[in-house]
Specification:
The protein has 354 residues and is an alpha/beta fold. Helix content is 43%, strand content 18%. Strands 2, 4, 5, 6, 7, 8, 9, 10, 11 and 12 form a ten-stranded mixed β-sheet that branches. Strands 1-3 form a two-stranded antiparallel ribbon.
Length: 354
């Protein structure tokens, strides 16, 4: 059963999905701290231990490393960081933000958060653009936690107990290598109602067969909390693929089970500067890379999932042919029908398909 996400993050009520929502007021449990308060506690402990003081890493080793990759996300980065800092947990965590030399003021906002919370936020601000994947690697290299939580700079966490719920899930299920959850897809111009990312929710515990049987991505990247061992064990060929989250999901499913919480605890934003949309502006490239990724996985696992992979590729082939037919039909409609409104509708539908 789905549970609603909080409705206090700026979206009009009329734009929410058509579900019955109850606003839940959570009282603070003993021992639960906000991220800001870990800084205060660490600073107090450091002052008592040494006149010079020490940083959070010396006094309280983080259990979770929150990794944020951002580039030209000025309208979203502050909300992204506030969603992380509002987390209420019984454990310490760190926030590592890698800005890839943004030109729109994003790096200034990131720097301001580091100055306000120096024991909690680590900013990686390079002098030149290194690219998405090099930026992801340098952020991952600074992470110290047993778990890695991901949040892109244009996405936002909206549940203050998100991290606590996912870590509790993984601590209670050692066979699970990562935990994800549902999200709400929000269009940049807000002209569409937010919709669930997982239109057909996966089971609470997923195997490799469950992952391969799904047509799309199991859950959004900004929902993931992953055991560090998964990243330490990633194969070298993972750098060949642009869809880093897909590689992590598949490799985590190979190493164990995947956990899923049926709650919308984050926002997945779709806008013109979205990194994922830039990577897959052509679905033909998406299908080709997905097939190459599954072939690589098949070889790396000694054909352990060969039958499931072939069945997945066959289903995706049907989906690809159906998409191409609809795409040709919409292009024809927009070209031959003289009515401007019909042409505009065809153009808009085509944009959704791509």
């Amino acid at each position: 059963m789905r549970t609603s996400a909080p409705d206090d993050f700026g979206l009009p009520r009329r734009l929410w999905p058509g579900t019955t929502r109850k606003r839940v007021t959570r009282s603070r449990s003993p021992g639960v701290l906000f991220g800001h308060e870990f800084v205060a506690r660490a600073n107090q402990a450091d002052a008592e231990a040494s006149p010079a003081g020490r940083d959070l890493g010396d006094s309280m080793e983080p259990l979770v490393s929150v990794r944020v990759v951002t580039y030209n996300h000025l309208p979203y980065i502050a909300a992204c960081l506030e969603g992380i800092l509002m987390q209420r947990t019984t454990f310490p965590f760190e926030v590592i933000v890698g800005d890839d030399c943004s030109m729109d003021g994003t790096r200034e906002i990131v720097r301001s958060y580091q100055e306000r919370f120096p024991a909690l936020v680590t900013a990686i601000l390079g002098d030149q653009n290194v690219g998405l994947f090099a930026n992801m690697r340098r952020v991952r290299g600074r992470a110290r936690g047993r778990y890695h939580a991901l949040c892109d700079g244009d996405d936002q966490w909206i549940d203050p107990l998100k991290l606590q719920k996912q870590v509790d899930f993984l601590e209670s299920r050692p066979e699970c290598t990562l935990c994800g959850h549902d999200a709400l897809i929000v269009e940049d111009n807000h002209d569409r109602r937010p919709r669930w990312f997982c239109q057909s929710p996966p089971p609470v515990v997923m195997t490799m067969c469950d992952v391969l049987s799904r047509t799309g991505v199991a859950f959004p990247a900004s929902s993931l909390v992953v055991r560090r061992e998964v990243y330490d064990d990633l194969p070298g060929w993972q750098a060949e693929f642009r869809a880093a989250d897909n590689v992590v999901l598949l490799w985590a499913a190979h190493r164990g089970s995947l956990g899923f919480l049926p709650e919308a605890m984050s926002l997945y934003r779709k806008h013109s500067a979205n990194l994922t949309l830039d990577l897959y502006d052509d679905l033909e490239r998406y299908f080709a890379e997905r097939e190459a990724l599954l072939r690589r996985l098949d070889d790396a696992t000694n054909r352990r999932y060969h039958a499931e992979i072939e069945a997945s590729l066959a289903r995706r082939g049907v989906w690809r042919r159906s998409w191409l037919r609809r795409r040709r039909c919409l292009k024809w409609l927009g070209r031959v029908v003289p009515l401007p409104k019909v042409r505009a509708l065809a153009s808009r539908l085509l944009g959704w398909l791509e």
